[in-house]
Amino acid sequence: VQLQASGGGLVQAGGSLRLSCAASGRTFTSYSKGWFRQAPGKEREFVAAIRWDGGSTYYADSVKGRFTISRDNAKNTVYLQMNSLKPEDTAVYYCAAKTGGPTTTRERYYIWGQGTQVTVSS
After folding, report:
1. Which residues, at least 6 apart from 3, have a Cβ–Cβ distance to it below 8 Å?
2. Environment class of 15 (CB within 10 Å of its CB; exposed 0-12, middle 13-18, buried 19+)
3. 72-91: per-residue pLDDT in tens?
4. How far apart are CA 56 and CA 26, in angstroms?
5. How far apart are alpha carbons 102 and 31 in whole angstroms?
6. Pairwise CA distance, residues 58 & 102, whole Å
7. Res. 1: pLDDT tops 80
8. Nearest-angstrom CA–CA distance, 29 and 73
């Protein structure tokens, strides 16, 4: 069972990136998914989450209106579209999965992918 995050990179402030998180080893259609990020010297923090059927989404206040989480269950993939990026969005971004409904609580997620680095230059 693996989650593979990709799509990170270096972008200028105001730019956009789309992260992908592909699942393998099992079907995650009944799992809620979340994105978290961790900046150097800081704790891993919640970014966005989506219910197993895409019926509800949640966002951190810091990204609301700029980031959009979505999923394609046919491809077993969840996405994070990031627009109007700011230098403070610089972090390693992680995707995670859990059964049941989505939550902003990091400890509730028990399947984690490796991170992908996002760097926003000013």
Report:
1. 21, 22, 23, 95, 96, 97, 111, 112, 113
2. middle
3. 988 999 999 999 999 999 99
4. 23
5. 8
6. 8
7. no
8. 6
Distance of CA 67 to the CA centre of its chain: 10
CB 95 within 8 A of CB 113: yes
Amino acid at 96: A
Cα distance between residue 88 and residue 86, in whole Å: 5
116 is written with which tokens? 């992908």
List of E strands, the chain: 2-6, 9-12, 17-24, 31-38, 45-50, 57-59, 67-72, 77-82, 91-99, 111-112, 116-121
**Would you state the structure tokens that stand for residue 16, as one six-digit string?**
């956009």
Mean pLDDT for 46-71 is 96
d(CA 68, CA 30): 20
Q: Tokens 């859990």 map to which residue?
A: 98
